[in-house]
Design a protein that fits this description.
The structure is a single chain. The protein is an alpha/beta fold. It has 2 domains: about 150 residues, no CATH class; about 160 residues, no CATH class. Strands 2-1-5-8 form a 4-stranded parallel beta sheet. The protein has a 4-stranded mixed beta sheet with strand order 4-3-6-7, with no helix packed on it. It holds the Pfam family 2-thiour_desulf.
């Protein structure tokens, strides 16, 4: 489906790849990210605390709210404030990352520099609340608002993992489209192949994006590119659900209404119902639909990324 020689470009917290850069000299190796997803990804590692010049090992950092209700990054023991130092480095680092053509980023959860949400923020009385955002993560998300981002902890959820990985594969294909030269014809092809995948995330965005592409000649190429990408990213951020997946599979079944024998149609409907009831994972009905696509040589469906959104070796559809 995708050429491994043109890999996804993914930023990542260095410790998740096994780099011993943590405050205690350790790491937080994630074997799925390194050994499984790593076959399809070229990682761009970032460790804010080491890159800003802090030693290994080092005192822990924390986010603290001061009397002026400003969030500060300070050392836990000494109270030394390095907020400006980290802020300045982060602003420069995200500008450097523009050159990397990233398709997304995986942050280290709970980190005062890299956590994307629910980082402990201590009030003036030393009481923590999980409402903070890591300094670097905040700068990255503000600078690259359209890129998919996730944390290592959240990726343990099969649905969040599948959603994120689907998004980064789509963004990789979008980057390839831009590299080939953006034009209305290429956009129509891209949109056509992603229609059902978009529908699985958001039927509303599916309709809006269809109208946008149909009226493509009414926009400049720049407007069309920017508007389409904004809609695409918004759609991908909405999680798929069992109900939406069943709706798409019923839509697919409509392409075979004059081809399937009665027993074949009944088998598909039974597997879809088993999926709806949580008795089988999504891969089961999709495998049968893919079989019928090949058997009856359904050219339109054969090109749909919905039926093969990412490499089977990742086994993501086996878990949702």
């Amino acid at each position: 489906m995708d050429d491994k020689n043109d890999k996804i470009r993914l930023g990542i917290s260095s410790c998740l790849l096994g780099a011993q850069v943590r405050y205690d000299g350790g790491h937080q190796l994630d074997r799925f990210l390194r050994d499984v997803l790593g076959d399809y990804v070229e990682y761009v590692p970032v460790c804010p605390e080491v890159e800003v010049g802090l030693p290994i090992p080092r005192d822990t950092l924390r986010l603290v709210e001061n009397a002026e209700q400003q969030v500060r990054l300070v050392f836990s023991r000494s109270g030394e404030d390095i907020t400006e130092r980290m802020e300045g480095w982060a602003r420069e680092r995200v500008r450097q990352l523009e050159k990397e053509q990233l398709d997304g980023f995986v942050f280290k959860a709970k980190s005062p520099s890299s956590g994307m949400e629910r980082v402990k923020l201590y009030d003036r009385n030393g009481v923590p609340k999980k409402v903070g955002v890591g300094v670097f993560a905040r700068h990255f998300m503000e600078h690259f608002p359209l890129l998919p981002v996730e944390e290592d902890g959240r990726l343990n959820d099969p649905r969040l993992r599948e959603n994120f990985i689907t998004a980064i594969f789509v963004l990789k294909r979008w980057r390839q489209l831009l590299a080939a030269g953006f034009g209305l014809g290429r956009l129509v092809e891209f949109h056509t192949r992603h229609k059902l995948l978009i529908m699985a995330h958001s039927p509303q965005h599916y309709r809006q994006m269809g109208k946008l592409v149909a009226a493509g000649k009414d926009f400049s190429l720049t407007e069309l590119r920017e508007n389409y990408l904004a809609e695409l990213v918004a759609a991908l951020r909405l999680k798929t659900t069992v109900k939406k997946q069943v709706n798409v599979m019923q839509h697919i079944l409509g392409y075979f209404k004059r081809r399937l024998a009665a027993d074949e149609k009944q088998e598909v409907l039974e597997l879809m119902e088993h999926y709806r009831q949580g008795l089988v994972p999504l891969i089961v009905p999709l495998t049968l639909l893919n079989h019928f696509v090949r058997k009856y040589d359904q050219a339109y469906l054969r090109q749909q990324y919905y039926l093969n959104p990412h490499p089977k070796e990742l086994k993501l559809l086996n878990q949702i």
